[in-house]
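Private note to self, pasted from the team thread so I don't lose it. Backbone tokens:
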């Protein structure tokens, strides 16, 4: 794939993402799902109305900026409501999310490219991400989960770009990465997991150097704590014929890491609280964090008695409990779109409008299988040589595909496993920070299949791609809230737990 074709593909992915998020954005002139909180909170910043929320403020700032900008635009004002506390159009509190969410597939594509320098892998990763349902739904309404992923992935991309830069530009990109990670955490605290994934892969790289170069222990420790990187450490990366950013992890020492990926994120996170605390002076910086922590500790456990859509972490990868964000019925398709009040009695509604936070089933299931495949590949690459040689042999240089596997498995695990110990009610949208790495995993697997010399593997790659596209088309009506017949709705609810 040529560079120009690659760029054209990225533009096409972005335009597809834009179209899916903006088309019919004002279809429901009401507050959908948690818009009853976040759209109101965004408007509260503009009206200087005090409020408390159980999350940091950045996501609401973004919604507020969108509302403020739209108030200076003379169009997109055909329908309005006063549900936010002011007379606003649905476009005004949704468009910023739609625009921001459109960048996520492009960012993922660029991460894939930095991991491998394979343009085909990057295009597949971006394209598959553009076809996921929960990211489309979360982008089309005034919710805040999209900003956790947007800034977290941006931080990871900037970190990977920093690894491939010379010293001056490297520090610039590291600083920008720290700001992005701080922004992710300033949306919700689980944005910290994106930074933790970088901590994990960076720490692994240094530990691996120590293990395979025991005779250079003192020199490696010196390099870890020095600002100047010794040429012997760099030389190990340069011995690899195709040097990728992840091969250069040990060119960032501990002081750079602490400053750019510790102090800067914390500082930026703290600064983002200033406007919120000025409007809401009831709690200071420390007190508001204590209140937020107490808020989450008081939430009930994962049971339908607490919330009908509570879903423990182990249900997310298998997509066993998605969420209905909006459900209304009408007598006929020509009736005005229902926005308020309960649905019609069973059997009375001939048209169903449903917005379901349902991931693309083919993408999620194949993605989870790909993560397991990568994990197995990493284990086998160590176990089989160990059995043959009756010792634990470690290669001097880790292969590019093994680095990709380590990066994806580490980040997936870091974003999923902390939820194992969470006892409060959690929902499927909490999986969004982990599932993006499953998207990268299936894109990597399909790319490997499509470039295989074996025809059956190429068929597998094409089949998986087709199933992902077909699943998106099939479930698109419940992503976009399009009218469905009762039969059409039931056909898309494959399991009772989906309803």
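Design output:
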């Amino acid at each position: 794939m040529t560079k120009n074709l690659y760029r054209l593909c990225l533009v096409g992915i972005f335009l597809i993402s834009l179209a899916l998020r903006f088309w019919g954005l004002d279809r429901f002139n009401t507050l959908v799902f948690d818009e009853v909180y976040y759209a109101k909170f965004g408007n509260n910043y503009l009206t200087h109305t005090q409020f408390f929320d159980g999350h940091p403020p950045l996501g609401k700032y973004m919604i507020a900026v969108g509302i403020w900008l739209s108030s200076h635009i003379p169009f997109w004002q055909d329908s309005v409501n006063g549900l936010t506390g002011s007379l606003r159009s649905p476009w005004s509190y949704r468009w910023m999310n739609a625009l921001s969410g459109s960048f996520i597939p492009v960012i993922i594509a660029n991460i894939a490219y930095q991991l491998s320098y394979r343009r085909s892998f990057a295009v597949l990763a971006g394209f598959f991400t553009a076809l996921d349902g929960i990211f489309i739904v979360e982008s089309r309404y005034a919710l805040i989960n999209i900003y956790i992923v947007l800034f977290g992935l941006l931080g990871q991309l900037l970190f990977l770009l920093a690894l491939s830069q010379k010293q001056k530009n490297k520090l610039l990109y590291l600083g920008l990465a720290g700001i992005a990670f701080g922004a992710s955490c300033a949306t919700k605290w689980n944005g910290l997991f994106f930074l933790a994934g970088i901590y994990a892969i960076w720490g692994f790289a240094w530990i691996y150097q120590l293990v395979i170069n025991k005779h250079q222990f003192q020199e490696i420790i010196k390099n870890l704590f020095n600002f100047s990187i010794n040429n012997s450490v760099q030389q190990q990366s340069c011995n690899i014929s195709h040097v990728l950013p992840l091969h250069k992890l040990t060119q960032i020492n501990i002081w750079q890491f602490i400053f750019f990926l510790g102090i800067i994120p914390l500082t930026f996170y703290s600064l983002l609280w200033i406007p919120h605390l000025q409007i809401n002076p009831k709690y200071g910086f420390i007190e508001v964090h204590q209140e937020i922590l107490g808020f989450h500790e008081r939430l009930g456990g994962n049971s339908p008695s607490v919330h009908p859509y509570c879903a423990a972490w182990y249900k997310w990868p298998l997509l066993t409990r998605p969420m209905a964000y909006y459900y209304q019925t009408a007598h006929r398709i020509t009736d005005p779109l229902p926005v308020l009040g309960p649905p019609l009695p069973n059997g009375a509604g001939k048209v169903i409008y449903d917005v379901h936070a349902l991931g693309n089933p083919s993408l999620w299931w194949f993605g989870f299988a790909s993560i397991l495949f990568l994990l197995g590949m990493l284990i086998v690459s160590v176990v089989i040589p160990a059995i043959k040689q009756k010792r634990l042999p470690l290669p001097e240089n880790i292969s590019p595909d093994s680095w990709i596997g380590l990066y994806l498995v580490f980040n997936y695990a870091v974003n999923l496993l902390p939820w194992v110990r969470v006892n409060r009610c959690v929902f499927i949208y909490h999986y969004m920070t982990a599932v993006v790495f499953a998207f990268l995993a299936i894109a990597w697997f399909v790319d490997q299949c499509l470039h295989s010399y074996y025809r059956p593997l190429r068929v597998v790659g094409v089949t998986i791609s087709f199933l992902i596209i077909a699943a998106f088309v099939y479930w698109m009506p419940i992503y976009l809230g399009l009218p469905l017949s009762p039969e059409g709705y039931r056909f898309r609810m494959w399991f009772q737990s989906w309803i």
